[in-house]
Design brief:
The chain contains 13 helices and 11 strands. It is α/β, with parallel strands linked by helices and about 350 residues long. The chain has 2 domains: about 250 residues, Aspartate Aminotransferase, domain 2, CATH 3.40.640.10; about 100 residues, Aspartate Aminotransferase, domain 1. The strands form 2 sheets. Strands 1-7-6-5-4-2-3 form a 7-stranded mixed β-sheet, with helices on both faces. The protein is globular and about 75 Å long. Bound molecules: pyridoxal-5'-phosphate.
Length: about 350
């Protein structure tokens, strides 16, 4: 049976969290002399001389409406990367605990593990980029605290079988983190609705991709109230600044604009796939549920450099295990995608392919 108290680090269980001025007095008042702010104002606009809401209530309320999840089940981080780091700091004892990742996948899980001196047990995906269930089950021991699953996966683009994820959720006594950074582009449905079913589930999403706000640094974690309380205890008091909170709230009114971008991106993805697939330098295009495609090419290094010289930057993933020969290409605007295809054709002409 999963019990959060059993996997929480002792120092975190016993931690007395920092109590800010905004924690100690939350009501309405006309004179605030409790936080050593500049009472005269700020060189910008009125609100920036005050500390921001530590728990970002307005943003969470709006997200709650959009996602159908109560605000108490939402954590906001300075990017999802902050949520990943907090998971390590709250649950993994440096030098003794371990986590499982399933490469090729997002690099931050391993970097964050290394920063926190936590062992990473890497269980390669199968040749069709799915979970190796038997190997995962063998790798788990009593020190395994977290399994990270990215779906749709970066850099492969595919979604991970839902039944496999549910099997892990039902049988693993640690946290299962499902990183849904690309969920808006996917035919699969989110795991957010399963929060009531699985108390060990943490779903990560972000405003950095479909929402078009990578520069704002706002990531989300959805989990049980008990897990969110741990996040809030460990996080820096004012981790989302006032400007980001205001702009996020404003952006979250524009669901329709975002939905229309998602539709257009998916349509462009399919068009780009069709156009690339007939090129002789392109060997394989992997199925994608994301806003990028993984493309196996002949001589990826040369194609990469050729593109750079033309001012087009794609991601060279050709040295990554299971992605040999591959470039990861983000779906651009119709104009950008056209330039990419032209560059491919140009490369083929010059090299007589
Ligand atoms: C881009 C990306 C993120 C987003 O990280 P932020 O810190 O929120 O910008 C998270 N996970 C994966 C797999 C990603 O590719």
């Amino acid at each position: 049976m999963f019990n959060l108290q059993n996997i929480l680090r002792k120092n975190i269980k016993e931690l007395v969290p920092y109590s800010s001025a905004r924690d100690e007095f939350k009501g309405e008042a006309s004179v605030f002399l409790d936080a050593n702010e500049n009472a005269y104002g700020s060189p910008l606009s009125e609100s920036y001389n005050r500390y921001p809401d530590p728990l970002q209530f307005k943003v969470k309320k709006r997200l709650s409406e959009i996602k159908g999840v109560p605000p108490q089940n939402i954590f906001l981080g300075n990017g999802s990367d902050e949520a990943i780091d907090i998971l390590f700091r709250a649950f993994c004892n440096p030098g003794s605990d371990n986590v499982i990742t399933v490469p090729p996948t997002y690099g931050m899980y391993e970097v964050s593990a290394n920063i926190n001196d936590v062992e990473v047990r890497k269980i390669k995906l199968t040749a069709d980029y799915q979970l190796n269930m038997e190997a995962i089950s063998e790798a788990v021991d009593e020190h395994t605290k977290i399994i990270f699953i990215c779906s749709p996966n970066n850099p492969t683009g595919n979604s991970i079988n839902r039944d496999d994820i549910e099997t892990i959720l039902a049988n693993f006594n640690g946290l299962v983190v499902i990183d849904e950074a690309y969920i808006n582009y996917s035919r699969q449905k989110t795991f957010i609705q399963e929060l009531t079913e699985y108390s060990n589930l943490v779903v990560l999403q972000t405003l950095s991709k479909a929402w078009g706000l990578a520069g704002l640094r706002v990531g989300m974690a959805f989990a049980s109230e008990e897990i969110i309380e741990v996040f809030n205890k460990v996080k820096p008091p004012y981790n989302i600044n006032e400007a980001s909170q205001e702009l996020a709230l404003e952006a979250l009114q524009n669901v329709e604009q975002v939905n229309s971008w998602i539709k257009e991106t998916v349509a462009e993805r399919e068009k780009l796939k069709a156009e690339l697939s007939i090129l002789p330098s392109v060997l394989t295009i992997y199925p994608s549920d994301a806003n990028f495609i993984l493309v196996k090419t002949i001589n990826p290094k040369e194609i990469y450099q050729f593109m750079v010289n033309k001012g087009i930057i794609v991601r060279d993933r050709s040295k990554v295990e299971l992605c040999e020969g591959c470039l990861r290409i983000t779906i651009g605007t119709p104009k950008e995608n056209k330039l990419l295809i032209e560059a491919f054709k140009n490369f083929e002409e010059l090299n007589k392919i």
